[in-house]
Amino acid sequence: MTHEALKALLDGMTLEEKAGQLTQCNAGQFISVDAEITGPEGQPLPAEELNRVLGSVLTFENAGQARQLQDLHLAADRNRIPLLLMVDVIHGMKTTYPIPLAMGCSFDDGLMAECAAMACREAAAAGVHVTFNPMVDTARDARWGRILETCSEEPLINSRMGAALVRTTQGDDLADPEHIACCVKHYAAYGAAEAGRDYNTVEISERALRESYLPAYRACLDAGARLIMPSFNSLNGIPSVANKWLMNTVLHDEWGFRGVVISDYDAVGELVTHGVAADMKEAVCLAMAAGCDIDMVKCAYYQYLPELVREGRVPEKALDDAVMRVLELKNELGLFENPYHGADEETEKRLNLCPAHREIARRAAEESAVLLKNDGVLPLKKDIRKLALIGPFAEEKRLNGFWSRPGAEKYTVTLPEGIRDLMPELELTVVRGCGAELGDTDAGGLAEAEEAARNAEAVVLCLGEPEHDSGEGRSRTDVTLPGAQLALAEAVMKANPNTAVLLFNGRPLVLTELEKIAPAILEMWYPGTEAGHAAARLLWGNANPCGKLSVGLPRSTGQYPMPYNRTNTGRPKPQPDSGVFPFSSSYLDTPNLPLYSFGHGLSYTTFEYVKLTLDKKAIRKEDSLTVTVTVRNTGSMPGKEAVQLYLRDPVASVVRPVQQLIDYQKIRLEPGEKQDVVFTVTEKQLRFISFDCEEVSEPGVFELSTGHADHLKLTDRFTLEA
């Protein structure tokens, strides 16, 4: 449809019809669906009335429902404007790949793109037009349950992974029925919620906001994301959905974003609860003034916008501009010509959980797993004949993580299934041992677990956190292993020291006591549909662990927040991993550093970092610097290594981080193979946000290092000349 035709359509609409285009409802208000919602059902307006004017729907399940929703609406809408159909496709549709936090540990943008393409194919066939993804909040506090939805505590990883997801999902042509639009979220700084409590207040300086939180949203918009979602939290006193500085000054004026802005679930209505709006009508006025185009589920726009326009409190041009942005998105998706887009039940059946998609999901689970510790227990010997699989997650099917689609556990390959498929001759004993629920202290199963461990040649101990304990609205004050799992670990390892721990969790956990007794720990996160196959291949060395931590693991909950790219104080602790050091920035009861630092991850082979070389010792602003890191596989197995490049700016006008990841590449090396990994460093990577909140670089000496956070090596220096 041409722009002129869209304009004519807009001009012929009533105020109520225009407001309807800016209103989104749950699919469950019109048809029967089995889908989790994360707030109130919505304003109880008659479904028949809403259906005549509605602009978009969220939270349906399949192509049949998508077509049913579209047919019901088009039959009722005199303008025959198709619905936008939106779903949270966060880490897979039917075929679930690992949670985003795990994907960040892959340090592999290409792998993220593969997973996104797989999810997009399944989602498009199910009738989805828009996914509420990627989520790129910088998150540095594991008490916040939604940390599992982001890739990292490092904005660079969030930026690159998010941009890769956007480019792959949207493709070159949104009208292509195999592609859908992306909505980046949650703008802004949702991951900095006070005390790690979901939906909570954020108070943060503009300089910190621009340096650590805004870059990933910007990167996703630069990659072409068509929508953005303001966050639930208030930001420096103003809820994001009504924050004019955030939405107008930064998003529209500075970044030039001209796409659709959609509120989070009931966020417009929550302006009243926040206390910045006296009633719903005022809330609508505030959200429109801040440039929020679509009101999710509250129906407040539909109820109050026509009245506000007639009163002159909301300019009709503002309403028209918002509606035009929605119509343009529908037009770009080709919905006026094909309102069903890619919805096709036969294609859906063919794609969902197909072997090719399962293979991608399995490989992603293998490459995002992080080998935290290994004292020679892993990989398990191929000739083991008796294995005990022990722990509350030994037979668990809920290993997909929050935001997997309803019923995802039905398709999950369990650990016993994966192990039996790989090792059919193995005698496998499975014992639960204890529960993993918060507050569950029942240790009645420990004796049976000890017996099973004692009678086995090796033990795989499956510990972690129940799937429902991390995700939206699932904050914790204590992120230690819940239940009697530590007691189970002590009993099992005493009975059989040849024990490897598999961890399944959605947030970093405190593993300090477990690390003291466990000879091997493999962090699996929530690996998704192919959990059992991936775990089995990793345990026996058919796959070699290559994940690196995209967020540090604490020694205690009290260390939070503990960003790896911390700044020095005037009294830094001389040895951050040592004991008490008086009158320094330190704790009395624990070292400063995390138990496992950002970027850490072992392999079944070993890698030697041979040398780091710079092609010049000084550059000007218009120059670039070539950095070469030579890496050799010194072990006996092929393996992949995420080579990380860190920067330090020792002297600047504001305090700079002691270490900052500025680039990474993942390589594969055969035993004995050596490779030069080449990075290009430009002046842009040396920039920071000044005290006056400007992006600047300053002449001086810079340090470049490889290794991983807190364990840097092969440092060299260069100068940025004036």
Q: Tell me the helix content.
A: 25-40%
Major β-sheet profile: 8 strands, parallel
General form:
globular
CATH architecture of the largest domain: Alpha-Beta Barrel
- The structure class reads alpha/beta
Q: State the CATH topology of the largest domain.
A: TIM Barrel
What strand order characterises the main sheet?
A: 9-6-5-4-3-2-1-10
Span between termini: 53 Å
Enumerate the spans where pLDDT stays under 50 for 5 or more consecutive residues.
Answer: none
Tally of individual domains? 3
- Mean pLDDT over the residues: 96
Strand content: 15-25%
CATH class of the largest domain: Alpha Beta
Number of strands: 26
The number of helical runs is 20
Describe the structure.
With about 725 residues, the chain is an alpha/beta fold. It has 3 domains: about 5-345, TIM Barrel, CATH 3.20.20.300; about 370-545, 3-Layer(aba) Sandwich (Rossmann fold); about 605-720, Immunoglobulin-like (Sandwich), CATH 2.60.40. The chain is about 30% helix and about 20% strand. It has 20 helices and 26 strands. The strands form 6 sheets. An 8-stranded parallel sheet has the order 9-6-5-4-3-2-1-10. A 6-stranded mixed sheet has the order 11-16-15-14-12-13, with helices on one face. A 5-stranded mixed sheet has the order 18-26-25-20-21, with no helix packed on it. Helix 1 crosses helix 13, helix 6 packs antiparallel against helix 14 and helix 17 (about 445-455) runs parallel beside helix 18. It is globular, with a radius of gyration of 26 Å.
